[in-house]
Amino acid sequence: MTARPALKVYGHIWPAQAELESELDCALATAIQDDISNDIPLLCRDGDMLRISFEGAWFPEGEVLDALKRNLTPEHQGKLDVLDMDAWRMTRHIFKDGAIRSSRAPLNNVLDYSGF
Q1: Which residue ranges make up each domain of the chain?
Q2: Whose CB has fewer CB within 10 Å in the chain, the N or C terminal residue?
Q3: DSSP-derived secondary structure for 52-90
Q4: How confident is the model at residue 114 (pLDDT cuts 50, 70, 90)?
Q5: Cβ–Cβ < 8 Å for 108, 101
Q6: At residue 116, does pLDDT exceed 50?
């Protein structure tokens, strides 16, 4: 039986500059993914967008946000959702107008709002 991941993290940001991609790649180097997720890249480029996809035991949220803060411009848009399955909470970081706005909510509230 496979244990469920403690954390699930999904996000995207655009436009995707090479320097931002490089810094995010470095920030993600210490993430501890589930064995099943090892074939899926943590960071991938999709045209002019960078996507983060993670399921596992530990995600370097602070380092990723620091990398974003150093590179964020008013043109950037996107979000990063961090789902803590043990605490049953979601933290959403929204990137807009050169700033990061963060909020938290219980996963029950998120699931009710989304119609699940």
Answers
A1: 7-114
A2: N
A3: EEEEEEE--HHHHHHHHHHH--TT-EEEEEEEETTTTEE
A4: low
A5: no
A6: no
